[in-house]
Amino acid sequence: MRTVRVLLTGLLAVAAIALPAGCDRTANSATGDHSRRPSRPATSPATHSPTPSPSPSPSPVSYPLRGTGSYAIAPGHSATLGRSGTLLRFQVAVEHGIDHLSVSGFADQVVDILGDPQGWTAGGDWRLRRVGPGQPHDFVIYLATPATRDVLCGAVNDRYTSCRNGDAVVINVSRWLHGVPYYHDLTAYRDYALSHEVGHRLGHGHELCPGKGKPAPTMEQQTLGLHGCTPNPWPYPHGHRYAGPAGEYPLIVPTDPTTWYRPS
């Protein structure tokens, strides 16, 4: 089973760059040495037990309509994902202005999705490896604000969808945080959104729903609707390649701005 992915809160130290830089996640303990913790008494009168202070609730991720246009690239690198095929190296970049989101935490989620046994590396054609700032790479995965998404994506300005433009795989932070109404599992939608856009970088075009009630292909534009299919994030569900007929649906996005921008 793939580990459950969660967004880690708290923006860590980052290295800023103009277009696509970094921070890291750290682990802490009270003493750093659990063997030195005092033993708990066998009995302890309730009247003398201190009341634990409640842990502060994490601040929700927030973002403006338009971020700074500069980025934090997750430091470090991942293991190579996949066992055979062409190796592609990628960086993970988060736009400055997206607050209370761990860059390294997001990068871990990306690696988790791309390394899933139902993902693109399952077919043996591709291996993927995340690299850090200043390292040679073949493409960049951006988490961007809605208006910056339009800048990175180029041709189509909708502030709603994610995209791939050349070597830029762009995930709209609004979709990452809020998904779409008919995907009731946000984790599954994130699996889909990243798999779909990386699929474009790997050379795959759009596909259509193969029939009512059937799973949607990963390369179907599921952000725009399911068109009779059921949600499916993966190109290799249960380890087997699944695809639909070539084709695409009209780009019709919601006109209500709260679907692509929800101010904190």
Descriptive notes:
Residues 61-226 form the DUF3152 domain. It comes from Actinocatenispora comari. Residues 28-67 are annotated as: Disordered. The chain has 264 residues and is an alpha/beta fold. The protein has a domain at 71-205: Collagenase (Catalytic Domain). Helices cover 16% and strands 13% of the residues. It is built from 4 helices and 7 strands. It has helices at residues 103-114, 146-153, 173-178, 186-201; strands spanning 16-17, 71-73, 86-95, 126-130, 139-144, 163-165, 168-172. Strands 1, 2, 3, 4, 5, 6 and 7 form a 7-stranded mixed sheet that branches. A hairpin with a 2-residue loop joins strand 6 and strand 7. It is globular, with a radius of gyration of 21 Å. The two termini are 34 Å apart.
Task: Report the β-strand fraction as a percent range.
Answer: 5-15%
Number of strands: 7
Largest sheet: 7 strands, mixed
CATH fold-level label of the domain at 71-205: Collagenase (Catalytic Domain)
Assigned CATH class of the domain at 71-205: Alpha Beta
> Architecture of the domain at 71-205 in CATH?
3-Layer(aba) Sandwich
Domain DUF3152: 61-226
Organism: Actinocatenispora comari
Keywords: Signal
Biased composition (Pro residues): 51-61
Outline of this structure?
This protein is α/β, with parallel strands linked by helices and 264 residues long. It contains 4 helices and 7 strands, in the order E-E-E-H-E-E-H-E-E-H-H.
